[in-house]
Amino acid sequence: MNKIKDVKTTVYKWTGPVVPPAQNFCTNPTDILKGSGDKMKSFRFHKWLVCEVISDDGKIGIGNAALAPEVTKKAIDCYLKDLVINENPFDYEYLWEKMYRHTLAWGRKGIGMVGISAIDLGIWDLMGKIKNKPVFELIGKRTKDKIPVYVSKLYNQPIKDLQNEAEKYLNEGFKMFKMRFGWGPKDGEEGIKKNLELVNAVREVIGDKNELMLEAYMGWNLEYSKKIIPHLIKFNPKWLEEPVIPDDIKGYSELNALGKIPIAGGEHEFTYYGFENLLEMKAISYIQYDSNRVGGITAGKKINDLAEKYNVPVIPHAGQMHNYHLTMSHNNCPFSEYFPVNKVEIGNELFYYLFEGEPKPKNGFIDLDNKIPGLGISINKKFKSNFKVVE
Predict the structure, then answer these.
(1) Which residue from 37, 24, 66 is spatially nearest to 219, judged by alpha carbons?
(2) Which class would CATH give 4-132?
């Protein structure tokens, strides 16, 4: 019987080239505050945590975390790792509850749950490697031949540049596109006008038959959202994502109840319990958890089943292998997000430089290999010189 021998955490800091921050690059929760400067600074991920769950026979499961990796490392090293050492990785449900309940006073959301997620992902990767099966085979098998993906970038930039980027993805075969806004409540009517110009520019390129998703990244409030939504309806967006901050669940519910544009969210929500509340309040029409923060694959599986009962589809945040396996294994996950390989900007791009094994999209679809065990990722040695290990 396999036992977990150790849990090792390493934080990698990107030291390679970075795209300089641009003004009004993307709306975010700090826009409402006074002051100027790089408002996206707090939301850039230029460090990443790797969590190795090591079995007594030397097999290594790889988990990861992008949120506050140095603090997450402390949570794992000081509080969580000892809870799973000498345990059977296949007792994953028990191990999840053990970590959750031992840290309940401070870890039920935020950093504590990010740490639990990293270990849980490592446990599932380890189980796949022990069984010599991909993770999706362990949690529901293949529910689709291939996974449709929407391309997710299109941040605020000069109109012509934005249209050129959209055309590039269109020519690559994508049929679903997600874009961001640049202005929020502080920018008034002029900001609304500029936001509408961005949406119009992208819709003009991709046409009416392709799907368009809109993201405000927590940068608006209820009043502003209700003001701009009537102007967005004509663009027929599939959803409006994170229009208000995650704690404004009543705001989510009110916007979703309007029935004008479906509301998406959940990227910054945690555990089954958090999503049970959102679903009961009819706050969202699309769920977008990320398994490297929501509670890992163990939590993601439960949320998928729960959401299916409410007829609310799950489209996990960010794509990436830990989420692709959940999408492949459940009928209630119709497609996935895909961040295109790009120069390091926000930081989601780091996943491609730190890990290898990510599937490449073809004509708007990705596939998972039946023959690769676990999550299918390993440390990418090609870009090793661009990372510095942070102790």
Answers:
(1) 24
(2) alpha beta
Report the amino acid identity of residue 98: K
- Given a contact cutoff of 8 angstroms between Cβ atoms, the answer to whether 51 and 99 are in contact is no
- CA distances, 351 to each of 12, 227, 355 (Å): 11, 36, 6
User: CA nearest 7: which of 102, 118, 110?
Assistant: 118
With residues binned 3-state (H G I as helix, E B as strand, rest as coil), the percentages for the chain, rounded to 5, are 45, 15, 40
User: pLDDT digit string (tens) for 143-180?
Assistant: 999 999 999 999 999 999 999 999 999 999 999 999 99
Cα–Cα distances in Å, from 79 out to 47, 76, 103, 217? 21, 6, 8, 31
Beta strand 176-180 with 147-152 is parallel
| DSSP secondary structure letters along 23-61 | TT-S--GGGGSS--S-TTGGG---EEEEEEEEETTS-EE
Domain chopping of the chain, boundaries? 4-132, 138-380
pTM of the model: 0.97
DSSP 192-260: HHHHHHHHHHHHHHH-SSSEEEEE-TT---HHHHHHHHHHHGGG--SEEE--S-TT-HHHHHHHHHH-S
Contact 315, 334 (CB under 8 A): yes
Do residues 225 and 257 lie in contact, with contact meaning Cβ atoms separated by under 8 Å? no
Residue-wise pLDDT for 253-305, tens only, equals 999 999 999 999 999 999 999 999 999 999 999 999 999 999 999 999 999 99
Query: What whole-number distance in Å separates Cα of residue 200 and Cα of residue 93?
Result: 47
Kindly report the CATH class assigned to 138-380: alpha beta
* Arithmetic mean of pLDDT, 200-216: 98
Distance CA 121, CA 355 (A): 14
Kindly state the average pLDDT of the residues 126-134: 98
Q: What is the pLDDT of residues 229-251, one digit of tens each?
A: 999 999 999 999 999 999 999 99
Which residues are identified as catalytic?
317
